[in-house]
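This part of the workshop introduces the protein records we will be handling. An example says more than a description, so a record of this kind follows.
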Amino acid sequence: MLRSFASMKLSQRIALRYIRTKFRLLSAISKRKAAEKAFELFCTPQYRNKKKLPKIFESAENLQLKVESSAVKGWRWNAGGERKVLIIHGYESSAINFDRYVKPLIKKGYEVLAFDAPGHGRSGGKQINAPLYRSTIKEINKRFGPVKSFMAHSFGGLAVSLALEETSHTSDYRLVLIAPATETVTAIDSFFSFLKLDPAIRPEFEKIIIRRSGVSPDWFSVKRAMKHIKAQVLWVHDEDDEITPLKDVLELKNKQLPNMKFVITKGLGHRRIYRDNKVTRQIVDFFMKFLTAILLLLISSSCLKKKNEPMPANNNTSNSTTANKYYCLALGDSYTIGDRHNCCCQPGAFPHQLRFGYFINWCK
């Protein structure tokens, strides 16, 4: 992750001066070679978080899968929970940085999945890029899903957006984006500025991206991907974020899309934001609003019936053509069920959809 020069240790400052000098000399010799080396550095994390595992990780089930040539390390809690949530970290970060979210989600019935990206934490590999991280998320979903709730920070936000737009999904999916790397072009701008790279190598740098991915850098955009995402989205961003600036978010925020909610904080920056207690509560609450409704509808003792009338003795109502209102005893709300007289909130198959998108099973 790019840091300000003033915040660096002396050894880091010396290393940075050396890298800048190296690129200045290489650029004078060959713009193409300088661009290749710059792209390699752009995709290579300089820090790997392998700190001691938080206590909550001691109770996790250890998982592993292979993505391309990298062994990807993961953890799972509460296998078989009502709904699965995947935690996705950012650049030079790790799943262990999000330990504070695990227990609250477990307590609410979620199966929690978390993985270290290739080149990060306890996973193998030395490099990471958006297509590789996207493939990692899709492979996790294939092996351990289906996952319908996602929480992602920074670079992880870009990766999950790219993965979700290519995954068949519905409006009952949930996506939390915490300070996502909204525009890759902005990340490249910051990278070039930080290393004081010769602007003349920028065209060659972008050609490498096009050659390897088949698309230009501006395609790697959360804003662009959102056009294809149906999930309910909670987007949390800080005004003082210097890594993924708020200015990249405002155009999308101003569109006031019905499936998106924005929370703008002040003074938390890029890293403290996901550790903030208030932000943590808002994220957990966002996931729980949906899961609570699902659980209530699946209480086997909660039936739907016509208001002020007993359940009909004959459950065979397939020939009925009269629309009726029924009341779920668990929720106390009325729902139009169509031509059915008798149905129950039960777990199992979900053949009929209520008007607000949740499901019930007919009484047999």
Notes: Confidence is low (pLDDT under 50) at residues 296-364. Residues 55-181+221-295 form a domain with the Rossmann fold fold (CATH 3.40.50.1820). The two ends are 58 Å apart (CA to CA).
